[in-house]
Design a protein that fits this description.
Blueprint (H helix, E strand, L loop, with lengths): L1 E5 L12 H19 L7 E4 L9 H11 L6 E3 L7 H4 L10 H6 L2 E5 L2 E5 L14 H12 L6 E4 L23 H8 L4 E6 L6 E5 L2 E5 L10 H4 L7 E8 L3 E8 L1
């Protein structure tokens, strides 16, 4: 099972006043898509871990669709803090989802002996993440459909401390339900959790679950390149799973 992860494309329409930034972000995503299309074998799935658009405008999602539609592999989205969920649905074509799943963007997709699940952490109030009781209920029900199958979770906001210093930094309005979220995962065969949002690579392990955050495809927003000039390139991840190796993640520089 091979999954390509992209994140934080932050597309802006070229007609906006930020013309150069808009054109560059289009180019970054087009180059990333071309690189993915050159992979052999092709990924079984592609996940986008949020902030498809920068302003949540329908025109920005149409632009995203035009570029991403070149991909051969199926692509799945989870919303970021910059996304408008109603407009995101215009390029989210999985019509088999229930209304609750579409509203919450909490859903599962099955492959042969493997499952990916989107966990919606978007919040209407601000840019911080949010986990709600309703969301956890839907999430738990989806996990219960098959307790043993290897599963990866993709979400926008990383549900743990992402600080590089002694000052704690959890990108959520409230930490109250985060322990409950992790407690739920303990009962299932969750092998990986992949996020975006913080615009840099961050690796950690919570219990037996490996987690990574991915820098933005919108290279102008990358925090990685500020600390390492060699990372002044578009990045995406290839997550490969097999029974013998577990989940192995490779950073691809474009």
């Amino acid at each position: 099972m091979i999954i390509a992860q992209i994140s934080d494309t932050h597309l802006i329409c070229v007609s906006s006043k930020f013309k150069v930034i808009a054109e560059n972000r289009i180019k970054y995503l087009e180059n990333c898509v071309s690189n993915i299309l050159g992979l052999r074998p092709q990924p079984d799935a592609i996940i986008h871990t949020g902030d498809v658009s920068h302003n949540g405008l329908i025109e920005e999602y149409r632009l995203a669709y035009k570029i991403l539609n070149r991909l051969i592999s199926p692509i799945f989205f989870t919303p970021g803090n910059r996304d408008d969920k109603n407009n995101l649905k215009s390029i989210f074509l999985h019509s088999y989802l229930t209304n609750a799943e579409r509203d919450q963007f909490i859903y599962s997709t099955y492959f042969k002996d493997f499952r990916i699940i989107s966990m919606d952490t978007s919040c209407k109030k601000n840019n911080q993440g949010e986990i709600t009781l309703k969301g956890l209920e839907i999430f738990s029900q989806i996990l219960m459909e098959n307790k043993e199958i290897p599963t990866v979770i993709f979400m926008h906001h990383p549900p743990y401390d992402v600080s590089l210093s002694s000052n704690k930094n959890i990108e959520y309005n409230s930490e109250k339900l985060i322990p409950k979220f992790w407690k739920i995962l303990e009962s299932f065969n969750v092998i990986g959790l992949f996020c975006g949002h913080i615009h840099r690579n961050f690796q950690t392990k919570v219990g037996n679950i490996i987690s990574q955050t991915l820098p933005p495809i919108a290279l102008d927003l990358s925090r990685d390149k500020k600390v390492n000039k060699e990372l002044n390139k578009i990045q995406y991840f290839l997550h490969t799973y097999s029974k013998s190796t577990g989940i192995v993640s490779e950073k691809i520089l474009v």
